[in-house]
Specification:
The structure is a single chain. This protein is of the alpha+beta class. The protein is 23% helix and 21% strand. The chain has helices at 22-26, 50-62; strands spanning 8-12, 31-33, 39-41, 68-72. The longest helix is centred in the last third of the chain and has 13 residues, at 50-62. It is globular, with a radius of gyration of 12 Å. Bound molecules: iron/sulfur cluster. Iron/sulfur cluster binds next to helix 1. This is Ferredoxin.
Amino acid sequence: MPEDMSGTRVVVDADLCEGHALCIQLAPEVFDLSDEEIAGAAPMGGQWDQGTWDAVKSAVDACPRQAISLLNTSTKGQ
Ligand code: SF4
């Protein structure tokens, strides 16, 4: 089922992340580890294809710390 993910951002809570890197294994084009071994997400939500979004959703489910959130920042309708 198609899903409009435009305006959606992927956010990693640095306070929760423990650097397990499961998210990076699932979606390496989206997640990366910082020097402090805390995952960060590339700031290009909404520009990925459906396969990448599926990988992001798998990472959300797989994260043992539930540190990954999908935030809809769409301002449609202002
Ligand atoms: S899977 Fe979760 S805890 Fe592990 S690096 Fe990714 S965001 Fe951090």
